[in-house]
Amino acid sequence: MSPRLPRAAAAALAAAALAGGCDRGPKVVPVSGQVLIDGRPLTKGFVRVVPAGYRAATGEIGPDGRFTLTTTAAGDGCAVGTHPAAVIGNETLVGQNAQMWHAPKKYLDPATSGLAVTVDGPTDGLRIELSWGGGRPFVEKFGGD
């Protein structure tokens, strides 16, 4: 067996490892924060941040309005940059064929919500501020009744 074969194999493995490492996407940093609606914590829902050309980051909103974003692994955060965002502030009312809206529907779609977040580095203080604009939480019924 030639002594060159192991070196060639090692070189091929190293090249493959380097090539694979070049396409990992943007830097992802830990991000958490709070969603407020008209100055008070939003108590239910989800945050969704959508970086262009990369995976969205999502986080469930707790009873104090706080959330932690996840992109690929629990709590890993969000890609650095300025990105459109959405807040899905509703819950299904089990057995009632309805849902309760805790935030206006306009915040559902990151393309039209008017929300954007800037992630410069790790943070636990990201604030997303919403407004009812004179409205208030409501129940939306589906079907029959």
Helix content: 10-25%
Shape: elongated
Distance between the termini: 81 Å
Instruction: Report low-confidence residues grouped into runs of 5 or more.
Output: 1-6, 8-23
The main pleated sheet reads as: 4 strands, mixed
CATH fold naming: Immunoglobulin-like
Tally of helical runs: 1
Mean pLDDT: 87
Specify the structural class.
Answer: mainly beta
CATH class: Mainly Beta
> How many E-type strands?
13
Radius of gyration equals: 22 Å
Q: Into how many domains do the coordinates divide?
A: 1
The secondary-structure element order is HEEEEEEEEEEEEE
What is the CATH architecture term?
Answer: Sandwich
- Beta-strand percentage range: 35-45%
Keywords:
13 strands, 1 helix, mainly beta, Immunoglobulin-like, four-stranded mixed β-sheet, disordered N terminus, about 140 residues, four-stranded antiparallel β-sheet, about 40% strand, about 10% helix, single chain, elongated
Write up this protein:
With 145 residues, this protein is mostly beta strands. It has one domain (27-141): Immunoglobulin-like. 12% of the residues lie in helices and 39% in strands. It has one helix and 13 strands; from the N terminus they run αβββββββββββββ. Strands 2, 3, 6 and 12 form a four-stranded mixed sheet that branches. Strands 5-4-8-11 form a four-stranded antiparallel sheet, with no helix packed on it. The longest helix is centred in the N-terminal third of the chain and has 18 residues, at 4-21. The radius of gyration is 22 Å and the shape is elongated. The termini are far apart.
